[in-house]
Amino acid sequence: MINTKTIFVLAITSIASGASLAAQKQAQPRLPYTAVHDPQFIPASSATFLHDPDRVIGITAGAVAKAYPAAILSQHGLVEDQSPSGPIAVTW
């Protein structure tokens, strides 16, 4: 004889797992940008594409100073970089 309580519980479990898998797939949208990992830097004197009114996000850690132009950040959304203290994420 089949225990109907067991079947009901198994059916609910399988419906719940299917729903959570579907939710997980839907919760991972494609990002409209590509993050920058390990960016390359140039000396400030060579950054002729920047002008006085342009915005940058700047960080300093010890003797290291870096500038992340807002125009570039707005195209990529995220920069993952290293500071002397460890990894950092910069976003705009």
Using brief descriptors, characterize the structure shown.
92 residues, alpha+beta, two-stranded antiparallel ribbon, 28% strand, globular
Give a description of the structure.
By secondary structure, the chain is α+β, with helices and mostly antiparallel strands. It has two domains: 1-29; 31-92, no CATH class. Helices cover 33% and strands 28% of the residues. It has two helices and five strands, in the order αβββαββ. It has helices at 4-26, 70-76; strands spanning 36-37, 56-61, 64-69, 78-83, 86-91. Strands 1-4-5 form a three-stranded mixed β-sheet, with helices on one face. A hairpin with a 2-residue loop joins β2 and β3 (64-69).
> How much strand content do the residues show?
25-35%
Distance between the termini: 63 Å
Strand count: 5
Order of helices and strands: HEEEHEE
- The backbone outline, from C-alpha atoms, is globular
Q: Percent of residues in helical segments?
A: 25-40%
What is the number of helices? 2
**Biggest β-sheet description:** 3 strands, mixed
List the helices and strands and how they pair.
Elements lengths: L3 H23 L9 E2 L18 E6 L2 E6 H7 L1 E6 L2 E6 L1
Parallel strand pairs: 1-4
Antiparallel strand pairs: 2-3, 4-5
